[in-house]
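Retro notes
What went well: the complex prediction finally ran end to end.
Inputs used:
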Amino acid sequence: MVKLTIDEREITVEEGATILDAAKLAGIKIPTLCYHKRLNPIGSCRMCVVEIEGLPNPMTACTTPVAEGIKVVTNSERLQRMRRETLKLMLVNHPLDCPVCDKGGECSLQDLVYEFEIETAEYRAEKKEREAIYATPLIRYWPDRCIMCLRCVAACRDIKALGAIDIVGSGFGAGISPVNKEKCESCGECIKVCPTGALTENLSRYKGRTWMVNRVKTTCAYCGCGCQLELNVMNNRVIGITTKDDDEVNRGSLCVKGRFGYEFIGSEERLTKPLIKRDGKFHEAAWDEALDLVAERLTAIKTAAGSDAIAGLSSARCTNEENYLMQKFLRAVIGTNNIDHCARL
Amino acid sequence: MTDVFFSSWGGEIVDNRGKEPENYEKIKGIALPSQFAGKEDIRALIGWYGIVLRSRDVNIVDLCRAYITAVQSESCGKCFTCRVGTMVLADTLTKICRGNGDEGDIDALVRVAEVIREGSKCNLGQTGPIPLLDAVKLFAEDFKRAVQDKKPILEGNYHYKLTAPCMDACPIHLDIPRYVESIKEGKFEESLNTIVEKLPLPGVVGRVCVRPCEMHCRRTILDEPISIKYLKRFVADDNLKKKKKVSFKQTPSEKTGKVAIIGAGPAGLACAYHLALKGHTVTIYERFGEPGGMAAMGIPDYRLPRNILGFEVEQIQKMGVAIKYNTVVGKDIKLSDIEKESEAIFIGIGAQASTAMGVEGEDKGYGGFIPGIEYLQKINVGVDPYPEGKKVVVVGGGNVAIDCVRSSFRIGKEDVNLVYRRTKREMPADHVEIKDAEEENVTFHYLTNPKKILTREGMVIGVECIRMELGEPDESGRRRPVPVEGSEFVIDCDILVPAIGQAIDLGLLEGKSGDNVKTTRKSTLVVDEFTMQTSNPRIFSAGDCVTGPSALINACAGGKRAAVNIDCFINGKRLEATDDDYFDRLFNDVKVFDPREKIGFLGGRKMLHLPMLPPEERKQTFAEVEKGYHFLEAKAEADRCLRCYRVGMIAV
């Protein structure tokens, strides 16, 4: 254990913890932007600078491991000046299109600019166009909104172990680019961690603001992993999926299906009534009529050819309970062990 | 007498403005050469520690503009302050230089420069604004005038180079901060690719390098250097473990030709690799039955396992390089015959002969008297050089001597001694190796020199030594050992291994009527220091046969340099030094690393050393002594890097 002082409070933390970890433990808030608890410290935003007694240079709390006996100051005139100047630099050529930005209302940059009361974008630089090449049909990159915090790069590499995107170019012209495009699975982990509106979902643009939706917690039904997610519901329609970092099982991560495969819920093409095929064509039917027909045909096959002439194939998309009932039905009612599941195929 | 009228280098201000040149105060801590590339006068220097001005014609505002623009173009983009801040500075300075400056611009410059200096992630941003802040403060009038006059300033002529203390110290100039950062980010393959752009033997160098980079690591000022060597080894091992093919970027030159290389040592291999990258057809002639030269024959397996060297040579062979083993040039084939078939020749024969000790009886061919290099060569091909002997005395204080004593235990010798005429402090061998040898129980006899070989029936039975004491310093700066009269004593032994130095066997050269390659009195080949060309325009050379016995990485750097110039030669281009070469020279005077620098960061994170086999176990076997890093250890070690990139620029 290591003992240190932060803002005149004595704190004891485990060796290897960072100053930011220690401050969090003590309930001391240090402003951050690129820091994300699921990622290795990035250190790009320089907001979490702190002063250590006896050292002339400030250091970033997120990347500096604690040391015995150090005295840390998290707030001073100098640190506030540095943070304000850094924020002003972040606003250089950052479009102030918050009214039409999907991230408006839950944007870390917006929050910090508000907190530090920065009213104008004071500094300017000649604009260098960045190409919006990083995009899949599901993910949209807004290069002008990107402040290059590099969370997306870290998430793709450290959480998903893909490394599909990375920083390319140098200086002000540097941008995020799909350096290994073939590795991108459109999982949306990058969107999940993006603190601004630089990466947005292409499906639900302009469908609703963050404060207008009702978030309903549920379990993803695509496979048996049990990932936790929130359906973003507005006017009884699902318009997006979000996740929480603290949720068990997936801790905020999803695959491409879990994150983007929600449009079927409100699809026009979805069946709402049973169909019976007559003379090669499907006709709508009442539930009783359809169920009677199924029961009749199954009984006939079982009588004529035995139970093993029937097999059941159930779906990964069903819940555990539904799958349980399916096998129970095949085994106890039909009398066969011919039961399988699409996830095995 | 100095011709510099202003300097803020290292924070020491010398201001000779308003003084006559004969009254100029001398600047401290920096020696600014007068010329760049031997043709352009250096009028000013601007860089990581400040500004040095020689010519009053240099416009300070434009100098700052050019410098900050260079810093911006080298910014990696991984932190806000440097990426955006230097752009704001560069644009503002450009605006002022075009005559469009506004009143508030100078205040804004200072505010932004301060936050870049204090808040940037790496040393590029931390050092970039320093000269600008100096200039705005000490040349306030010039800046004010530039803003008020609203007249465009004529752009000056500048050259710049990005460097770092470690990169500058590395003979082959590996981009160390870049490959270390790749490791930190878990991009091991990318890290290896950065290394092999210049160095084809990462696993070898990652084990045996003398690491000048670590001696110049800025982190040393805080706690300890980062282990650049072990990190290099880690990415090479990781690749070997995953059995991945290293991806070489082969970009053939317009004209390609046949090149012969004499010697498959580090210099020859590096040269072959870089020639193959350029599409040339390369044949290496090697006198032994395996590749590696001194890396294979001189370095024991417990430091450099055979399979590591083998794998890396295999990669070079896969690029189309042919190696003819067991072929001694000058004996099996004549150099002039090779010359007829090749457009260019590279000689990398190393320094494979042993220097004589000047001791009575060493030329008599006594049984048990074996020169160090020969002793190691035999052991390295699995032969005990003298099975009859059990008690060994090795003479010398270099790495070869240490390799001899440590190898002796491993072939079953029981009593192993090292005799060195100075003290441990003066020993040229790697201090880590000395420590390892001490742990393995080598008996060190310091301040001792052999005088006479004692024999019985043509066999060594001992060596008579004399005690030494240190006198006045000699030309090498070390105190000269002087014998103490009457202090003779005898060390019993049956094997005596002199390892006091290596010499070059020039048997392959054919003299004035043949190749006409000039040599020095020390039997080294004379080459142009930049192009590695010998007095015969078609013959190039590098490595120990040019420098005398030296570090492996120097041989690799020389081999690479020769390859670049052989490529130019084949393509009919002029062979000359590049701007990079001249910057090397400039930085040698200007010093990229200042050990007196104060780094105001938190230290206390020591180097992560490699786990080692225990001494009693390791001295019985040739198995590798040091185990490599686990990938988490490698990432943690890489995280200690301070990324000391910096830009140096001169006005000409």
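What we learned: Chain A has a mean pLDDT of 92.
What to try next: split runs per interface for comparison.
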